[in-house]
Write a structure and sequence with these properties.
By secondary structure, the protein is α/β, with parallel strands linked by helices. It has one domain: Alkaline Phosphatase, subunit A (3-Layer(aba) Sandwich), CATH 3.40.720. It is built from 13 helices and 16 strands. Helix 7 runs parallel beside helix 9.
Length: about 550
């Protein structure tokens, strides 16, 4: 514990020093021009919470990702879709996920929506692929990791512009090759469009390690081509099941014995010290103190056995995140050793907020041993659960697949080519939709409009971050901009400093539209819908226009 406490204090000191010299819009000497096409490395974690990284206030040891922050810029108001495949569709297509074909996750699409336009369950024919555009303009293009945008050859990453691809087609898998024989594994891997049987994976397969191996092999295969690269590292960590390599399972022994609230409060305090959130930020109220089901219990009400299991799950989760960081470090080291790092535009993000739901479990009937001593091994199957998800999502409300800020606010770090020191943390709204035009602008490629190579497309709708990243503006959107989204019955709309939200699961909200002033109350503590009914109606109009523009249909059939 003492080692971790010292490490955390040193991390805060280092970040404070690295950011202390950054002033808004007056650090032009650190901004470099990119006269030639830069390499692009886009790293996406899976279900990584807002506060998990050291750079965002976490106690988990993430020096490699943090180093990107020390040479780049933090975006503290970066938004995704509420879950994974919708976000990934927006990244690849640059359009709202309802337009891209992922109006709902394929595995969660109700019968009345299956096959409907926008609910195809794969990246549809109207969707452009960022990889295809980059490839057509001189880039070599690679992906390794989770695809989750289609199961057929036509919807495979190999058919969407990636020169080389190693992909998990579904939304999750066991992180090890080994699994209990009774476990019915429903996962498919492909390489360059060809199915790779799980039996063909190496015996020491661990998802994060192997995805990195593959990506590095692709980068190495083309390093003498003279072409820039677009490399998409699409990790499945720390998505459930919570598992980690043996050497990472004891690194956090005892750290989480203090319970949910102690860890969460410490993270929030560090976020304030680092300038991630204002010193007067009023964090979301933990759901255990609200009217919620019994499974959202308080730490002090758990038995000794329950505490041991809960703490152990978070120890393994932290080990998964540290392993993820080590693999990011492997990529960074490769780029530096091959003189590629300086001319590489690097993004690190998560695909959504932390996972708080328990979506069905596997126990002894499937050959798993879910005892405390076995957590994190290939023969265990666990989730972190809602209370640890609240810790990961700190300081925000709720988690993945809801309408809370904790679902759609993700950590984001951007490092420009040749950037050597941190730029001022940016607190303006940004969206995963913005990545598409940002990448193309840095690559000196115009964003296609309406048609591409003779076929009709949905025009990408985001806004390039380039002026913001190069200190030419503080924000890329007007003060009263509007934004909305819907997924699985959870809905929200924002305009200016206001937000309305309706939770798809009534037990997580009031069952009606809630209203928050997110400039003053981004923790979503004070629902003021009854005080400002006209404002609710105004934002309902914003939401209605969004649904009409993007073909949103009601998820819950009447």
């Amino acid at each position: 514990m003492k080692y971790r406490a010292i490490l955390s204090s040193l991390s805060i000191a280092l970040f404070s020093l690295s950011l202390a010299g950054c002033n808004d819009n007056d650090n032009q000497e650190n901004v470099v021009s990119t006269p030639k096409q830069p390499n692009i490395l886009f790293i996406m974690a899976d279900d990584l919470g807002y506060s998990d990284l050291g750079a965002f206030g976490g106690e988990i040891h993430t020096p490699n990702i943090d180093s990107l922050a020390q040479e780049g810029r933090l975006l503290t108001d970066y938004h995704t879709a509420p879950t994974c495949s919708p976000t990934r569709s927006q990244l690849i297509s640059g359009t709202d996920h309802h337009l891209a074909g992922i109006g709902a996750m394929a595995e969660l699409t109700p019968e009345h929506l299956k096959g409907q336009p926008g609910y195809e369950g794969y990246l549809n024919e109207r969707s452009l692929s960022i990889a295809q555009v980059l490839k057509d303009n001189g880039y070599r293009t690679y992906i390794s990791g989770k695809w989750h945008l289609g199961l057929t050859p036509e919807s495979n990453a190999h058919a969407k512009g990636f020169d080389h691809s190693f992909t998990l087609l579904q939304g999750l898998d066991h992180h090890f090759k080994q699994a209990p024989s009774a476990f019915k594994r429903n996962s498919t891997y492909t390489e360059d469009g060809q199915i790779i049987p799980i039996s063909a994976l190496p015996d020491d397969f661990f998802s994060t390690n192997y995805f990195t191996d593959k990506l590095l092999s692709y980068l190495d295969s083309g390093k003498n081509s003279g072409k820039p690269f677009f490399a998409y590292a699409a990790y499945t960590a720390p998505h459930w099941p919570i598992q980690a390599p043996a050497e990472y399972r004891e690194k956090y022994h005892g750290v989480y014995d203090v319970g949910y609230d102690a860890i969460r409060n410490a993270r929030i305090a560090r976020q304030k010290q680092l300038g991630i959130i204002p010193a007067n930020f009023d964090a979301a109220e933990p759901i255990a103190t609200q009217n919620a089901p019994q499974e959202y219990g308080k730490w002090d009400e758990l038995t000794a056995g329950q505490k041991a299991l809960e703490a152990r799950k978070m120890e393994i989760y932290a080990g998964m995140v540290e392993n993820l960081d080590a693999n990011v470090g492997r990529i960074i080291q490769y780029l530096k050793q091959n003189n590629l790092y300086d001319n590489t535009l690097i993004f690190f993000v998560s695909d959504n907020g932390a996972e708080g739901f328990v979506r069905g479990g596997y126990g002894s009937e499937s050959g798993f041993d879910n005892s405390v001593a076995n957590v994190g091994t290939p023969t265990s199957y666990h989730y972190i659960g809602p209370r640890w998800a609240e810790v990961s999502a700190a300081p925000f409300h709720l988690w993945k697949d809801t309408a809370g800020e904790g679902a759609t606010t993700a950590p984001a770090i951007v490092k420009l080519p040749n950037q050597k020191k941190a730029e001022a943390t940016n607190h303006s709204f940004a969206s995963v939709l913005d990545v598409f035009p940002t990448l193309l602008e840095y690559a000196h490629i115009p964003v296609p409009q309406d048609q591409y190579n003779g076929r009709a497309i949905n025009t990408p709708s985001g806004i390039s971050w380039k002026p913001l990243l190069e200190n030419k503006t503080d924000t890329i959107r007007p003060a009263n901009f509007s934004f909305a989204d819907e997924l699985h019955g959870s809905k929200y709309a924002k305009q200016g400093e206001w937000k309305i939200a309706l939770q798809g699961r009534p037990e997580l909200g009031t069952g009606t539209w809630e209203l928050y002033n997110i400039k003053l109350d981004r923790g979503e503590r004070q629902n003021v819908a009854q005080l400002y009914p006209a404002k609710v109606q105004e934002l309902l109009s914003v939401y209605q226009k969004y649904t009409e523009k993007n073909g949103v249909q009601e998820y819950n059939a009447k």
